[in-house]
Amino acid sequence: MILFPSPARTINGKTTMPIRMPLKLFAAAALTLVSSMAMAFEPQGKVECLAPADPGGGWDFTCRSIGKVLEDLHLVPRNVQTINMAGAGGGVAYAHTVSKRAGDEQLLVAASTATTTRLAQGQFHGMNADMVNWIGAVGADYGIIAVSKDSKYRDLPALMDALKKDPRSVKFAGGSAKGGWDHLKVLIAAKAAGVEKLPRISYLSYNNGGEAMTQVVGGHVDAFTGDISEAQGFMKSGDLRVLAVLSEKRLPGDFSDIPTAREQGIDALGPNWRGFYMPADVSDEAKQYWIDAMDTVYDSEEWQSVMTRNGLMPFHMSADEFENFVKSQIQSIEDLSKDIGLIR
Amino acid sequence: METMSFLIDGFGVALAPHNLMFALLGAFLGTLIGGLPGLGPANGVAILIPLAFSLGLAPETALIMLTAVYAGAMYGGRISSILLNIPGDEPAMMTCLDGYPMAQKGKAAEALAISAVASFMGSLIATVGLILLAPLLARFALTFGPAEYFALFLLAFATLGGITGKNPMKTVVAAAIGLMIATVGIDNTGVQRFTFEILELYEGVDFIIAIVGLFAVSELLFFIEERAGGGKAKMVVNKLKLSWKDIRDIMPSSIRGGVLGFIAGVLPGAGASLGSFISYTLEKRVLGRKGNFGEGDPRGVAAPEAGNNGASSGALVPMLTLGVPGSGTTAVLLALLISLNITPGPLMFTQNADIVWGVIAALLVGNFLLLVLNIPLVGIFVRLLSVPPMYLLPIVTMVAFVGIYSISNTTFDLYFMVAFGVAGYVFRKLEIPLVPIILGLLLGPEMEKNLGHALEISDGDWTVLWSSGLAIGLWTFAIVGLLLPTIVGPILRRRMRQQVGVAA
């Protein structure tokens, strides 16, 4: 998670935004009409993006940066207002969307794997994934497993072999809560490698990936589990050795020399996607409009440069494909959480 | 030299027009709040935090504004000390000693100007110290594992008496209240504690809500009780006559005061009061009979002011590098950092370099702004301080409500804040200090987490807690820090009081 992306400045940018010419607006609207089948829906006035966390975090970043691109591409008539609603790891915002905003066609809510993890583990009390409309994912941050540069583990199989002998021999540090996504990535990898006694594996939860990494680099904890974007600083300085990235194939650019878990014979995947959902009871036209808008955003140069700047990797899904993905991810997290005794 | 380039980048952030504007605003409001008798810098920052949120500021801008408030409050504390013999906050107490006699002799303007220059020197020295020391300490922080952090937090709690304690038992009670509130929410192992299935409580109690409620809302309640609509006593300032020689004369005192203050600030638990106290007493010792201390000696104004401003910047060192606040105000700033998703510590100096160095540069810039604000414009502050609180406090309250609502957009938080306000009112009536509550709330979860981690790593072996040299050192300091203030504290405080008593 990049904590301080420049797009946070868009709040101040409000004043500097030029007043759009009606002609331009008309042209943009016409383009959208041609490019999509949605003839009936056009957002009017203010569009809101709900970030279920405090300013500065990943969801806040998702809202602010997507809002900026939506404005730049004239997919919204005015500006996109980011509203922060922290609480219960997204639960407060989820409850708000389900119970108070049903039918609101101008509301997007930022989501990620943290959302599906909590849904899977029943942490959003009495709520499930069917209660909202899943719009699309616009990028992902892939999971990694890393050790400090002085560690005796040189590749992922070596680390997993140690776990097979004694599940408590390697202690992992990560930025999510116990049972959260960072913890699950370790378990996904360990399960794929054939480690038994998964619940015995030791996981230490820190406030964020940075804090966890500091402990690993400082030699206090054995291994780090987190996302690739978090690790950039320590990777560059050479303090951290990434044993594996949990992606389908090698990542582009500077990351291309990091081996995947798959090529080391451990079939583990851990994409932390960034995307959006909408309230229930919205019209099909409105839903289609936002699905198309996300497709347009994802393909735009503006968004691609936001992704590169912030370490987001290619990952795009929308509409039904995305909804099915979300549901299958929830199912597999639920199964895994049962396996390790996190939930019954 | 890496530091230099970071600092230059920091100036780039601090000198951006909108940041500069908010630094000016912060410095101005800080001086004003610092000058109001009874409203110290911790309250000042706490009251103005919601302003940063309601304006929807970017993290670095919010931090820059509030550090300017912090620095401004330290400057402002001296105004009522000098003019009314009522310290604006505890650290400004020593300034009364020679400041008020100077004002009585018709030299109020000179006393204000000299203290502004001394404050500037103190802050400048300490900020340079911060620039040199913080990156070193940040690297050192890598050697802190869970056991060391646990011992460090223990040290912070053990030295709490130094920050507040008039009555040590009440400080303990306050810290315990803070720790109790800190247990609400989902704990580190995923177990829910005291959440009553209320979603808003899953992540525990938001520090900012607690702080604004305890400090700002309770202040309003106190005002309603006192119905102090009449305003304060009239303050008069003469026309300023200050020569370069006068400034040169106080320079050595200011430099000594600044250095001592910085050292006092860096030590956890010591804080600004101690900084101004030792600066004053040292100055008296050094100059001996050559000065006429207690009767309006300019150096007696300069030394404590340099001392308390030095200490306030010094207190930022442990806060930024280790996440352990050295004073009440830095505790409030720490809460702000955390709520902006910035974790203080070694990583902050690399990951959020623009913010850290922007803030440090802003301290330097803010100091110049404050010097400019405080010499020619001091008359304006004096006049503004005579504004009856019946106009001031409702504005403060309104800002608090708007700010808190804009953080999470739920009314739940507003009710919560009001509840904390009422609690704060009761605590203050019972003379239970508020700062330890905040520290308990802030550090409690961290302390618990680190204890848990240390034991998880050692597979349940308790000896891990004192297995490294660093940890043993911290434990020793904690024990010394716990015992020393109970022995030395009353003596120090009595001497401080005596001197103030004699002077008045």
Automatic annotation (TrEMBL), chain B:
Domain DUF112, first and last residues per copy: 20-439
Coiled coil stretches, renumbered: none
Bilayer-crossing regions: 20-39, 45-71, 111-134, 140-160, 172-195, 207-224, 258-280, 322-343, 355-382, 388-407, 414-444, 464-488
Keyword vocabulary terms for this entry: Membrane, Transmembrane, Transmembrane helix
Keyword Chaperone set for record: no
Protein name: Putative tricarboxylic transport membrane protein
